[in-house]
């Protein structure tokens, strides 16, 4: 869970946004152009580019405290996503009534609802392996993309548990059920549209499959959940999310839950899930570089947000959304929500101001919430579980779109028009 440090925001030189852009470019292109080089050296590339930003803040800006805060944010993030990965790896779900289009659509809808109860990361880690098994005879790139759209992002827009940006708002004083009440119509519209498009595509895919494949897909297996004790460890992790004091207790409990889960899970369950630490290791190395390199980009944005001419809820929706697609959506949310408070002459750290802002200017908070959560699905790095899902699908050796294909074939032509419709319907006033 990414929590921002209470550090003074500096005004970095814009040239130091280049390491972030370079890392993004490497993630997007090197697995395609130089796969062997990337496979053997992505750790060095990620840490090397991150080191440029770290040294600039330490030596150039004398702002070691800022980077120390970011280092702790990274520890918190990896503790959360890593513990969920381990615990979910100890739960094996055998489905009954597999992968016909209607079952797939209902599965994604259930995932969208579950995301608000256990978070988009928790729902993604619990549901991605059964999703792969359900569709094993005809799993295509769009099965990966739509899972990320719905379960890993858009679905988790109704509670602070659902997605890290909303949890940051909760910590700043936004009431727990406020987002549910204000965002439910937009959530239902977005989820409904995405599921409808998925159903149409999946039906075409199903009907195009050979008869033997269709018969396998409609076969029935006994529904069974193994590793039930891991739901207890999952409850520990979710309860720990809400702990603020003392520092480090939240992360320690998550690590203890992960170790407890791994040690008490029977080997056959891990084998059935094809569990390994490979995906979480890859995410940990890449996000170490992402966390470091995005600091200059976020700080520069916060210092110069006013110059962008952002003044209406629709502006905040699109700007917070656009940046949430390429920056981690949690700090992007807080940056734009803070800017919206400033636009109205209010302070986000003042509880009375928060109450006044939500009462008088709630449309701005809705806009930033929707933009940050929904647009996190635009790329693999917009939200933590996106890359985790891709890593697990890659590890299962089934079809997954590369970085560019995901954007060009799915997020731009399918997701973006739906999100534009949602903005027009609910934020155009």
Distance between the termini: 33 Å
Which outline best applies? globular
> Going across the major beta sheet, what is the strand order?
1-2
Stretches where pLDDT is under 50 for at least 5 consecutive residues are 1-7
Helix-strand makeup class: mainly alpha
Number of strands: 2
- How many structural units, i.e. domains? 1
Total number of helical segments? 17
Share of residues in helices: over 70%
The radius of gyration over CA amounts to 21 Å
Q: Could you explain how this protein is built, in words?
A:
The protein has 429 residues and is an all-alpha fold. The protein has one domain. Helix content is 71%, strand content 1%. It has 17 helices and 2 strands. Strands 1-2 form a two-stranded antiparallel sheet. The radius of gyration is 21 Å and the shape is globular.
Descriptive terms for the model:
single chain, 429 residues, mainly alpha, two-stranded antiparallel ribbon, 17 helices, 2 strands, 1% strand, disordered N terminus
List the SSEs and their pairings:
Elements: H1 18-33, H2 35-60, H3 64-88, E1 92-94, H4 101-134, H5 141-150, H6 164-171, H7 178-208, H8 211-217, E2 224-226, H9 230-240, H10 249-264, H11 267-272, H12 278-304, H13 313-324, H14 329-343, H15 351-374, H16 384-395, H17 403-427
Antiparallel strand pairs: 1-2
Task: Please provide a brief summary of the model.
This protein is an all-alpha fold and 429 residues long. Helix content is 71%, strand content 1%.
């Amino acid at each position: 869970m990414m929590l921002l440090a209470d550090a003074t925001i500096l005004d970095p030189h814009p040239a130091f946004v280049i390491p972030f852009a370079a890392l993004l470019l490497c993630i997007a292109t090197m697995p395609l152009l130089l796969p062997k080089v990337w496979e053997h050296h992505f750790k060095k590339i990620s840490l090397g580019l991150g080191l440029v930003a770290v040294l600039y803040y330490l030596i150039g800006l004398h702002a070691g405290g800022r980077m120390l805060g970011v280092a702790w944010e990274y520890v918190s993030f990896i503790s959360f996503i890593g513990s969920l990965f381990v615990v979910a790896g100890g739960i094996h779900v055998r489905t009954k009534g597999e992968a016909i289009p209607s079952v797939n659509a209902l599965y994604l809808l259930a995932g969208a609802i579950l995301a608000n109860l256990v978070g988009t990361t928790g729902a993604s880690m619990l549901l991605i392996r059964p999703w792969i098994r359900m569709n094993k005879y005809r799993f295509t790139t769009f099965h990966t993309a739509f899972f990320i759209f719905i379960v890993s992002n858009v679905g988790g827009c109704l509670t602070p548990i659902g997605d890290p940006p909303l949890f940051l708002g909760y910590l700043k004083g936004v009431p727990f059920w406020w987002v549910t009440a204000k965002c439910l119509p937009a959530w239902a519209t977005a989820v409904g549209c995405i599921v409808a498009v998925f159903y149409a595509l999946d039906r075409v895919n199903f009907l195009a499959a050979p008869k033997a494949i269709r018969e396998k897909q409609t076969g029935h297996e006994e529904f069974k959940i193994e590793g039930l004790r891991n739901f207890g460890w999952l409850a520990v992790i979710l309860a720990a999310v809400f702990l603020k004091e003392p520092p480090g207790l939240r992360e320690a409990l998550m690590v203890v839950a992960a170790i407890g889960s791994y040690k008490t899970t029977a080997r056959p369950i891990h084998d059935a899930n094809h569990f390994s630490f490979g995906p979480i290791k890859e995410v940990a190395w890449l996000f170490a570089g992402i966390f470091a390199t995005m600091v200059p980009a976020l700080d520069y944005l916060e210092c110069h947000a006013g110059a962008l001419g952002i003044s209406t809820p629709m502006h905040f929706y699109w700007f917070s959304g656009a940046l949430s697609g390429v920056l981690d959506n949690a700090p992007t949310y807080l940056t734009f929500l803070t800017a919206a408070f400033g636009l109205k002459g209010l302070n986000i750290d003042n509880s009375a101001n928060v109450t006044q802002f939500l009462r008088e200017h709630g449309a701005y908070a809705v806009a930033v919430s929707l933009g940050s959560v929904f647009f996190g699905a635009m790329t693999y790095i917009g939200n933590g579980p996106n890359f985790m899902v891709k890593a697990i699908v890659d590890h299962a050796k089934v079809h997954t779109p590369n970085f560019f294909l995901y954007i060009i074939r799915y997020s731009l032509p399918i997701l973006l028009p739906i999100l534009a419709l949602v903005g027009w319907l609910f934020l155009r006033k």
